[in-house]
What does this fold into?
Amino acid sequence: MPDSPTPWQSFSDRIHAAATADEIALVEHELFGRKAGAMTNALKALRDVSPDQRRTVAEDLNRWKGALETQLETRKKELGSPSEEKMKTADALDTSLPIPSRERGHLHLIPEFIRTVEEVFGRMGFDVATGPEIETEEMNFNKLNIPPDHPARDLQDTFWIKSENPEERLLLRTQTSPMQIRYMQSHTPPLRVIAPGKTYRKDSDATHSPMFHQFEGLMIGKDITLANMKAVMSTAIRELTFPDAEFRFRTGFFPFVEPGLEVDMRWRGDEGKSREGKWLEVVGCGMVHPNVLKNCGIDPKKWQGFAFGFGVERLIMIKHQIPDLRAFFSGDLRFLRQF
It folds into this structure.
């Protein structure tokens, strides 16, 4: 310990007497604070000491500075580590307690199901395509043979986006069908592709959501018929839900297919909970309209095929008997832990 001026010894005594980390922090600040620390100011004042005394004063200050810093670090460690006696009483471990369970994270139902979709259709030879969620009116409606006065274009159904170019209207895509258009424009037949992703429509109830997931698909060849489409639909439904799933085809209308069909699945469990009774629509499909093929540069006299669009949430609702689609987006851990 250096021989000492009284102020530095008093700081040393306070360090040894400190009983808490806060007291140590206070002493450290009083000593080494950048603006008002006693040691800081003393070192700055060396420039005012006469040259013949400066060396002696500097050596003394440096000795005290090193000693005080060492004492501070030692005391910090002592106060930060509980004593052996304290650990025996206040921090004792009860080895008779059960080991706490550790909850493991997992994928949400929707992306997990989409992975399964890609695997099932991959085995049937389908490619996977993805694209922008902000689409042009040309891709989302015009190329799909949807008339200018079709209700789907109305403000109450579609989320339109302000665009700096009035000639190119933008919107949040209402289906993943635009990816079929993009795929046909960049590939030559024969084609097999699915396009999973988010879609947006102004609708919200037990079986609808403003944002939901679809996987749409397309198969183009020279001899593709409705029989091929029904075989693919039947295989997909049974692979993705139940081997003995009960479903039915019925006629439907969509501007981009002709003829058009819809597929309903029978609700399993309590029919009163399904909000839709016995049946729930899960897919729209049909033979691709010749105008859509022409819009993509494909000759409808040589090529034909079918397109389809499944509702991801609806298939999962059927599979797990979930009566309300909104549960998928609630973030309720009680719901998510069941899967």
Remarks:
- Residues 51-80 form the longest helix (30 residues).
- Residues 6-89 form one domain.
- Residues 1-5 have pLDDT under 50 and may be disordered.
- Strands lie at 127-128, 134-136, 160-161, 170-172, 191-200, 211-221, 247-252, 257-266, 279-288, 304-311.
